[in-house]
Amino acid sequence: MTFILYLMLIILATKAAGALSVKLGQPSVLGKLLAGIVLGPAILGWVKPDDFIGHFAEIGVLLLMFIAGLETDVEQLRRNWRSSFAVAVGGIILPFIGGYGLAEAFGLTKDQALFLGLLLCATSVSISVQTLKEMDKLGSREGTTILGAAVVDDVIVVVLLAVMMSFLGAGQDVSIGLLIGKKVLFFLVVAVAGWLVVPRFMRLFAPFRVTEAVMSAGLIVCLAFSYFAEQMGIAGIIGAFAAGIAISQTAYKHQVESKIEPIAYTLFVPVFFVSIGLNITFDGVGSQWLFIVLLTLIAVVTKLLGGGVGARLTGFNNRSALVIGSGMVSRGEVALIIAATGLQAGLLLPQYFTSVVLVVILTTLITPPLLKAVFTDKHVQPSE
Asked: Mean of the per-residue pLDDT values for the chain?
């Protein structure tokens, strides 16, 4: 029955901490993230990471990105694809150089330096999505550019990771052609399914004389797209986002959105926020404080500048470019997965694993207040 206690503590702590965060002038998501650190092994130790937390958190982040897809302006996303691509590329080049350079300075091998550089390239915008949603800016031109860039970033980083593992990882045998082919296949299948299959499926399922038929159909599409994405080597959150976009083009958009949000934000999303903080532990970090401070600075500044330059070169003004760069700072669960992969392959030394995890979580904590500070109505780029 421990999981019932965990759920009670998580819901209570995230709502209370979120309300306190808003009272202090910060996005509620910052308080929810900090609640995970307080509840977890780092401080109180009342909630410990386990399979239950992991599964609930995974559903939470999928629903979060599904809702983001439902609220995305597809036409604006299409108009901003060049900016999204430029932001993603800029947000990969500079972090890679910064991570590689720091690793070299600390005496890591070339292989380990390459891996650390790649790890800093990752982006997870689930926290940015929640922050923008709270600020009612998710549908802005900046918001859609951030979402589009996250999709491009995920694909590029996954391909680069596979290439690196094939050359550096022990016993790894990866067909680069097959890898890229699976990514292309994913987007082709999702595009066709979103255009032809999803609308028909929703129309077929909606008349069923069962409770919440429409919402159930929406969840089926979300989970199917997410599972297919994982099978194709792409993060499930990209599949969930694509599912949300597909349903947003049907007549059932508002019905699905209004029914899915109460479930997501009451139960699953709070567990996701707390799960991030549960990964923090302060064991052995005292001797690596300089590495942690420098890596955090590099992680934040390079993503901010890289994404910002990409936005600036494709028509955004300086303040909007700063907003977009800020939205790309969080590394989130994507970087944590890459770190675990590197640890298993021997490309990330065990003594640096905790420090890297701490840096990833720090970038996630920094993102909400940073976005709130730079995203003001006065300086936002108008939609075209």
From this structure: 88
Q: For residue 6, give the amino acid letter.
A: Y
Q: CA angle, corner 139, sides to 267 and 222, nearest 5?
A: 45
Nearest to 371 by CA among 7, 63, 29: 29
d(CA 270, CA 253): 24
Q: Which residues contact 164 (CB under 8 A, 6 or more apart)?
A: 114, 115, 118, 347
Distance CA 67, CA 130 (A): 10
- Structurally, at CATH architecture level, domain 53-374 sits in Up-down Bundle (1.20)
Name the residue among 16, 20, 13 with its Cα closest to residue 47: 13
The Cα-based distances of 177 to 181, 182, 225, 350 in angstroms read 6, 9, 23, 32
Coarse DSSP helix, strand, coil percentages of the chain, rounded to the nearest 5 percent:
80, 0, 20
Judge whether 365 and 188 are in contact, CB under 8 Å: no
**CB-side neighbour CA atoms (13 Å) of 277:** 27
Helix (H, G, I), strand (E, B) or coil at 286: helix
The pTM of the full predicted model, rounded to 2 decimals, is 0.81
User: How far is the C-alpha of 22 from the C-alpha of 29, rounded, in Å?
Assistant: 9
Confidence of residue 46 (pLDDT cuts 50, 70, 90): very high
**164-204 per-position pLDDT tens digit:** 876 765 545 556 777 788 888 998 999 999 999 999 999 99
- The crossing angle, in degrees rounded to 10, of helices 51-70 and 269-278 is 130
Q: Look at the chain and count its residues.
A: 384
**Which distant-in-sequence residues (6+ apart) come within 8 Å of 127 by Cβ?**
29, 33, 330, 332, 364, 367, 368
DSSP letters, 171-235, are T----HHHHHHHHHHHHHHHHHIIIIIHHHHHHHHTT-SSTTHHHHHHHHHHHHHHHHHHHTTS-
What is the dihedral sign for C-alpha 24, 63, 334, 303?
negative
**How far apart are alpha carbons 356 and 365 in whole angstroms?**
14
